[in-house]
C-alpha cells in the first residue's frame, strides 16, 4: 500500500549491496511493519525495545522540538538494517556507539543501517538525535500533533509517537520510559508516571517523568502548556497527579469536579478489577478543541469538551478502567480492540448501577432493543471489526452487551472472578480475544465458543433465542432508556483520531 517504488537506479545499488561476503548473507533487513494486518507498516520487525530515554527541548512559541532518544533494545533476528517509525528530521543515529547510516522511507519509516550487522540476541543502544516542527509533518495525509495556545499535545490512537519520538510503534512492543523535557520557565511538561525533581536554568525548566512499568507507544503522552497541578493519594496510597490548563474557561470547575474523584473511582474499580497496576494515577485537561479522551497510561488525556455539560464521572471511569484493560494488559493486535473497549464501556455500566442510574442488565437490554435487526450497528463484529470500524460505536455498545451475555452465561461468581483475574493473569503483557475466551472457559469451566461467535463475531443481530438464553431482552415489552444513557453516550467521542 505505502511501499516505495523501486527505480532502476535503486535496483542497481541493491545488486551492489548483495555483493557481500557469504558469511554476512544471513543478515537481513528487519521488516518495515511488525505484522499487524490492520496497519501493515506500524511497528517494525527484527528487534524488541525494553526502554526509551527521551531528552527533549520544546519552544511553544514556534513549535520547535529538538531531542535525543536513547533506545535500549535487543535484536530478534540477524539484522543488516532495521526501521524505526518517525517523522521529524534526524541529524545522527548511532548503534552501540558507532555512527549508523539512515534514510527516511515510506510514510513514517526511518531506515537505520548499522556500521556492522547485528547478530540475533545482541543488546542494542540506539541513539537518535533529531529536531523539527511537529505540526509541519504528516503521514498518510494526517497529523495527530495538537497545538494549543500555550503549547502542544501528543495523545492519540493508534498514532501519536511519530511526531515526537522514534519508536517501534505497536502495542505489542512495550517498554519503560524516562521522558525529560526542557520548557521555558512558567510552562510545564506533563507525561506518564511519576515526576522527578524539577530544576531551572537560564530560563528553561526541566521536567522529568518516569514510567517504570511497560507502556505501549500510543499510551505515551506529552503535554506542554500552562497547567495548575493538584496532588493526592488513593486509599491504597497510589499518588494522584492531575493537571488542568489555566485556560479552561467555564469548563474548569466541571473538569475539576470530575477528575478530583480519580482516587474514589480507582478505589471503586479496584473492587472489580483488582490491585491498581501502576505507581501513579491521574489525568490532564489541556486547552484543546478536540472532543475525545484517551487512556494514556497513568495520566489520562481528557478534552475539555467532555465537561461541557457539567461533571462527567462516566468518562473518568472509562479511562481509568483502561489502566487494567488496555494499558497493563494490552492488545496483541489491533483486531483485539474489544479487550479494551468492551470492558471500559462495561465499567461505565457498572458505575451507572453503582450510581442508581440503571443496571448493567437494563443497559444491555436497551442496546439490544434499540437497534433493529437491519441496523448497520450489527454488521460490525466487535471481536475483529476491521481497521475502519476499530472505534465504531458497536465496538463499545455491542462489545459491552457481549460482556453482559458472558456474565449471564457463566453466572456472577465466575464472571466477577474472570473480570478480576484477567488483569492479573496477563499483567504488563499482551493478550488477544482468543486468549480471553480461553481464560473465561478455564475459570468458568464452560465451553464458550458459540457464545463468543454469536455476540462478537457474527455480522448480524443475535436472534431472540440466543438473546433469551443469554438472558438479554427476556421480555418483549418496550425497554425504557436507563437514566445513565445520555451521560454514557456523551462519552462516545472517546476516540477521535
Ligand atoms: Zn476507551
From TrEMBL:
The keyword Zinc applies. Its cofactor is Zn(2+). Residues 310-455 form the Peptidase M1 membrane alanine aminopeptidase domain. Residues 50-219 form the Aminopeptidase N-like N-terminal domain. Residues 1-24 form the signal peptide. It catalyses: Release of an N-terminal amino acid, Xaa-|-Yaa- from a peptide, amide or arylamide. Xaa is preferably Ala, but may be most amino acids including Pro (slow action). When a terminal hydrophobic residue is followed by a prolyl residue, the two may be released as an intact Xaa-Pro dipeptide. Gene3D superfamilies: Neutral Protease Domain 2, tricorn interacting facor f3 domain. The keyword Cell inner membrane does not apply. InterPro entries: Aminopeptidase_N-like_N, Aminopeptidase_N-like_N_sf, Peptidase_M1, Peptidase_M1_aminopeptidases, Peptidase_M1_dom, Peptidase_M4/M1_CTD_sf. One of its GO terms (molecular function) is alanyl aminopeptidase activity. One of its GO terms (biological process) is proteolysis. Keywords: Hydrolase, Metal-binding, Metalloprotease, Protease, Signal, Zinc. Pfam families: Peptidase_M1, Peptidase_M1_N. Its EC number is 3.4.11.2. Belongs to the peptidase M1 family. This is Aminopeptidase N. It comes from Streptomyces colonosanans.
Amino acid at each position: 500500500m505505502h511501499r516505495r517504488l523501486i527505480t532502476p537506479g535503486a535496483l542497481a545499488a541493491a545488486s551492489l549491496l548483495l555483493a557481500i561476503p557469504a558469511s554476512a548473507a544471513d543478515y537481513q533487513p528487519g521488516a518495515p511493519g511488525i505484522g499487524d494486518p490492520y496497519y501493515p507498516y506500524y511497528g517494525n520487525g527484527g528487534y524488541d525495545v525494553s526502554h526509551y530515554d527521551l531528552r527533549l527541548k520544546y519552544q511553544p512559541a514556534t513549535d520547535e522540538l529538538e531531542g535525543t532518544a536513547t533506545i535500549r533494545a535487543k535484536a530478534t533476528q540477524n539484522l543488516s538494517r532495521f526501521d524505526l517509525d518517525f517523522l521529524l528530521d534526524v541529524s545522527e543515529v548511532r548503534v552501540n556507539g558507532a555512527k549508523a547510516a539512515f534514510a527516511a522511507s515510506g510514510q513514517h519509516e526511518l531506515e537505520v543501517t548499522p556500521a556492522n550487522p547485528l547478530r540475533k540476541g545482541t543488546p542494542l543502544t540506539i541513539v537518535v538525535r533529531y529536531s523539527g516542527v511537529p505540526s509541519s509533518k504528516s503521514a498518510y495525509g494526517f497529523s495527530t500533533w495538537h497545538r494549543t495556545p500555550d503549547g502542544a499535545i501528543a495523545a492519540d490512537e493508534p498514532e501519536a509517537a511519530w511526531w515526537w519520538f522514534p519508536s517501534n510503534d505497536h502495542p505489542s512492543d512495550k517498554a519503560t520510559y524516562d521522558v525529560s523535557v526542557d520548557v521555558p520557565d512558567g510552562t510545564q511538561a506533563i507525561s506518564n508516571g511519576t515526576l522527578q525533581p524539577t530544576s531551572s536554568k537560564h530560563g528553561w525548566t526541566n521536567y522529568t517523568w518516569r514510567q517504570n512499568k511497560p507502556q505501549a507507544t500510543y499510551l505515551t503522552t506529552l503535554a506542554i502548556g500552562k497547567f495548575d497541578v493538584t496532588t493526592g493519594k488513593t486509599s491504597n496510597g497510589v499518588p494522584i497527579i492531575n493537571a488542568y490548563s489555566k485556560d479552561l474557561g467555564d469548563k474548569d470547575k466541571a473538569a475539576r469536579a470530575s477528575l478530583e474523584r480519580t482516587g474514589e473511582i480507582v478505589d471503586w474499580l479496584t473492587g472489580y478489577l483488582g490491585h491498581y497496576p501502576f505507581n501513579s494515577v491521574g489525568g490532564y485537561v489541556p486547552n484543546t478543541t478536540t472532543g475525545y479522551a484517551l487512556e494514556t497510561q497513568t495520566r489520562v488525556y481528557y478534552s475539555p469538551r467532555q465537561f461541557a455539560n457539567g461533571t462527567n464521572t462516566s468518562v473518568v471511569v472509562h479511562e481509568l478502567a483502561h489502566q487494567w484493560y488496555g494499558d497493563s494488559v494490552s492488545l496483541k493486535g489491533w483486531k483485539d480492540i474489544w479487550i479494551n473497549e468492551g470492558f471500559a464501556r462495561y465499567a461505565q455500566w457498572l458505575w451507572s448501577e453503582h450510581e442508581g442510574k440503571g443496571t448493567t442488565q437494563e443497559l444491555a437490554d436497551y442496546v439490544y432493543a434499540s437497534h433493529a435487526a437491519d441496523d448497520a450497528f450489527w454488521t460490525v463484529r466487535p471481536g475483529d471489526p476491521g481497521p475502519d470500524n476499530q472505534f465504531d460505536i458497536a465496538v463499545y455498545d455491542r462489545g459491552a452487551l457481549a460482556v453482559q451475555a458472558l456474565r449471564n452465561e457463566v453466572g456472577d461468581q465466575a464472571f466477577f472472578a474472570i473480570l478480576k483475574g484477567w488483569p492479573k493473569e496477563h499483567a504488563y503483557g499482551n493478550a488477544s480475544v482468543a486468549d480471553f475466551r480461553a481464560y473465561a472457559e478455564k475459570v468458568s469451566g464452560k465451553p464458550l465458543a458459540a457464545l463468543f461467535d454469536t455476540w462478537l463475531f457474527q455480522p448480524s443481530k443475535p436472534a431472540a433465542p440466543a438473546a433469551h438464553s443469554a438472558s438479554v431482552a427476556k421480555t418483549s415489552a418496550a425497554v425504557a432508556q436507563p437514566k445513565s444513557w445520555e451521560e454514557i453516550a456523551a462519552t462516545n467521542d472517546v476516540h477521535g483520531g
